[in-house]
Amino acid sequence: MSRSPAARVTLAASAALVLVAGAPPAAPAAQDARPAVVQSRVIGHSVKDRPIRAWRVGDPDARTRAVALASLHGDEAAPRMILQQIRDGRPVEGIDLWVVPVVNPDGFLADRRHNARGVDLNRNFPREWVRTATSGRRPASEPETRALMRFLDRVDPRFVVSFHQPLYGIDTYGPKKRWFGRRLSEELNLPRKDFACGSGCHGTLTQWFNNRFDGVAVTVEYGADPSWRRMNVVAPRQLLRALGGSR
Ligand SMILES: [Zn+2]
């Protein structure tokens, strides 16, 4: 499709105005039959022009604002269910939480790690970016990367949880992640690990966010095949508790 970048900026600006005008905090969005959802938003579009959707649950006036996202790698599909369950379940209290279950819709539908241009989105962020066969033509070259950057800039969350598979652990490398990483490890019942991305991390979402914002972003990896019950029943409750929320 041929929507121009300028048209997208205009759309994004309209979305921001809607956000400012806003619905009252406790009222569910009228177009959304999900009682937990207080707001929903298209944060951008994929290479193939598929919408990337975010849902806000909880209390917009809560002290802690957080973002939880999944399927940045399209073939790591299980943890998105945690976020869909939080979105589709009962109302959430005590936290202002945005969930983005599928950041990479083209990769997700193709069951492929990369986006439709063969780029690993978690190597495409403009922080210590390195040119490789799959890191993109330049930092933030991909529309999915830019959509997430704009969204996080606007929300400015205290916590970001980025779900992946299959390394089974929580990345606590670096002092900034230590406290929140330990908390996630205890609540989600996953071991703490130092992920080094093979030969060092370049252009990852957490590198970019942790360098740019006061908040802290942590990578959470489940195993290759977590149980349905863990994704749909146990982990949603655990994640809310780790972030200070409940339902
Ligand atoms: Zn991954």
From TrEMBL:
Q: Which family does it belong to?
A: Belongs to the peptidase M14 family.
Give the signal sequence positions.
Answer: 1-29
Designated name of the protein: DUF2817 domain-containing protein
> Matching Pfam families, A to Z?
Peptidase_M14 (PF00246)
Please list the coiled coil stretches.
none
Asked whether the keyword Signal is assigned, the reply is yes
Q: Does the keyword Transferase apply?
A: no
Q: What is the lineage of its organism?
A: Bacteria, Bacillati, Actinomycetota, Actinomycetes, Propionibacteriales
Gene3D superfamilies the record matches: Zn peptidases
Q: Which segments constitute the Peptidase M14 domain?
A: 4-247
Its needed co-factors are: Zn(2+)
